[in-house]
Write a structure and sequence with these properties.
Layout: E1 7-15, E2 19-26, H1 56-63, H2 70-78, H3 87-101, H4 107-111, H5 118-134, E3 162-168, E4 174-182, H6 192-201, E5 206-212, H7 222-238, E6 241-248, E7 253-255
Helix pairs in contact: 2-3
Length: about 260
C-alpha cells in the first residue's frame, strides 16, 4: 500500500528506462510518480539556478562542445524541461538510452522518457543523423601494407605518377589521405614541406607514403629511394614516424616495410 507523501518501497515496478527493480519512491499527494508532481522539489538545481558559466549552452559558447559532458550536450539540445520535470533529469535518461541502443535508438525509445514528446525526440535523432552523414567516418586501421591498398586503388592505373601521403594517429588509424604531387618524381621532386604541412595540422603520429609506377615496374627507382630517405629524415626531425612506403601498379604492390627498407 502507498501513502501520499510517504517514501515507500515499490517492488518490481518499472523504474527509469525499461528496468524492473525495487526502489524507494516518494508518492505525491495525487498518487502520481515524482516526475509528474509539479509541486515536488527534487533537490536538483534547475538550469536557471546554476551560475551562468556552468549552464551547458553558455559553457559550450565559452569552451566549445568538447568540454561538455554527454548529459550537458543533451541538455543543450533539449533547451528546457517541462512542468515538474527538470531538463537534466530528462537528459540523464536520454544518455542512458543512447548508451544502451546506440545507432538503433528510435523515436519510440526517446518518447518513453517522461517529458520527451515527438518534438524533442525528433531534435535529438535529427542531430545524430546530421553528425552521421557529415562528420562521422569509418575508422580504417593500418596493420600491414595490404590494408593500404583499398585506399589507393584509384592511382594504381594512372598514366602519371601520383605521390600520396596518409596521416595516422597513435593507434595507426587513418586521419586523412592526400595527393601531394602529380608528375615524375625525378622531374618534380617531392619537398618535405609540402608533405608534412598538413600532417602536422592533423596532429598525426605517423605517416605512410604511397606512389604509383605507370610503367608497371614494382621495384623502387633511384629517385624514389632518395626521396624516401629525405622524407624519412625530415619526419624524424618532426617526431613523425614513417611506417611504410608503398609502390602500387596494376600488377601488385611493393612495400618498403616488407622489404626491410624502413629504418
Amino acid at each position: 500500500m502507498t501513502v501520499p507523501g510517504i517514501t515507500t518501497i515499490i517492488p518490481t515496478e518499472t523504474v527509469g528506462i525499461g528496468r524492473q527493480e525495487c526502489c524507494y519512491r516518494t508518492i505525491a499527494p495525487n498518487n502520481a510518480p515524482f516526475w509528474r508532481d509539479p509541486k515536488r522539489k527534487t533537490g536538483m538545481k534547475t538550469i536557471k539556478d546554476m551560475p551562468e558559466h556552468s549552464r551547458p549552452r553558455e559553457k559550450l559558447r565559452e569552451r566549445g562542445a568538447c568540454a561538455l559532458t554527454d548529459e550537458e550536450l543533451v541538455v543543450a539540445i533539449l533547451g528546457r524541461g517541462m512542468l515538474g520535470i527538470d531538463v537534466r533529469t530528462m537528459a540523464r535518461h536520454v544518455v542512458h538510452l543512447i548508451c544502451e541502443h546506440r545507432d538503433a535508438l528510435t523515436l519510440e525509445h526517446l518518447m518513453d522518457v517522461p517529458g520527451i514528446k515527438l518534438a524533442k525526440a525528433a531534435q535529438i535523432l535529427s542531430a545524430f543523423e546530421l553528425a552521421r552523414r557529415h562528420l562521422l567516418k569509418d575508422t580504417v586501421k593500418i596493420t600491414v601494407a595490404q590494408d593500404v591498398l583499398p585506399l589507393v586503388a584509384d592511382i594504381a592505373g594512372k598514366q602519371q605518377e601520383y605521390f600520396v601521403c596518409i596521416s595516422l594517429n597513435g593507434a595507426n588509424e587513418v586521419i586523412e589521405k592526400r595527393v601531394v604531387t602529380i608528375g615524375l618524381l625525378d622531374k618534380s621532386p617531392v619537398h618535405p614541406r609540402e608533405v608534412f604541412a598538413d600532417v602536422i595540422a592533423d596532429r598525426a603520429a605517423a605517416v605512410i607514403f604511397v606512389h604509383n609506377h605507370p610503367s608497371g615496374e614494382l621495384q623502387p627507382s633511384e629517385a624514389g629511394l632518395r626521396m624516401h630517405e629525405q622524407l624519412t629524415d625530415a619526419g624524424k626531425i618532426l617526431g613523425l614516424g614513417v611506417l611504410d612506403h608503398v609502390i602500387v601498379t596494376r600488377k601488385g604492390y611493393f612495400s618498403f616495410q616488407e622489404a626491410g627498407l624502413i629504418r
